[in-house]
Amino acid sequence: MRKYIGLLIVIFYSGLVYSQNLVLNHSFEDYEECPDEVTIDSKKELVPNWYMPNRGTTDYFNSCAFHQVNVPDNVMGHMFALDGNAYTGIILIEQPPAYSKNKRPMNYREYLQTELKTPLKKDSLYWIQFYFSIASYSTYAFNKLGLWISEEPIANRLSSKVLEAEPQIILDTNKIFNDRDNWCQVCDTFRALGDEEYITIGNFSDDYHTEVEEFDNSMYRGTIQQTIEENKIAYYYIDFVSVTHVSDTLNNYCENKFLVKAKEEPEWLLYYSDYILSNPF
Fold first, then answer.
1. For labelling, which of 9, 21, 62, 198 has a CA lying 20 to 30 Å from the CA of 83?
2. Listed residue (280, 247, 19) closest to 125, CA to CA
3. Burial bucket for residue 216 (CB in 10 Å: 0-12, 13-18, 19+)
4. What's the predicted TM-score (pTM) here?
């Protein structure tokens, strides 16, 4: 069953739980080579254990890099990693019809996909979470960030278009969340049908069914402002992905559980309770 969930925003760190996480390379710290630029040519593997299931060019950012893909300063803005020194970045919609001259959908998408350490067990309950941050230089915010859980990998390496799937976990708020430069938690519990072994993160709705909101970029000047306006993309950083088995169905694992650090920020919390929606298990 599709479940619409809320989000939690916090800007102080109290510790992330690593035990029993079924996601390998969960915060993208492992890599074959330090990246030197954004991804130009689509390839199957982004970093160890993480794949690009279509021909979209998902990006990898790491503090070991310079210029384009450095952490915290890179081609899409300024953001410290939530956990460690790395994160990824994906385009979730490009040139949405409402903001394009020809009003025709591009349906271009970028995704992240990984195989879990072990398949999920039938009727078991799992606590699933990942974090996103809207990039400083993103043109738009949008409302359909989702996670698809499946037995087999969903993929179309011949196309960069939308992958056809119904994500079981999706952030679908009545009001588009448009707070840039904070790490935000997408979190829910999931009752396994059994043998699910892959998760895929991205936007699974076509352009006509994706709502966007354009940012006011008047704070920027010159080349940066021009680039943001010309890019016409919703660009989000992704970090710390977790799938953990839990046994207590009475606990709300997604409320006030994790506090996220944003370096050089004061030690206080910011919660957007208007976005929290209740869900039965």
1. 198
2. 247
3. exposed
4. 0.86
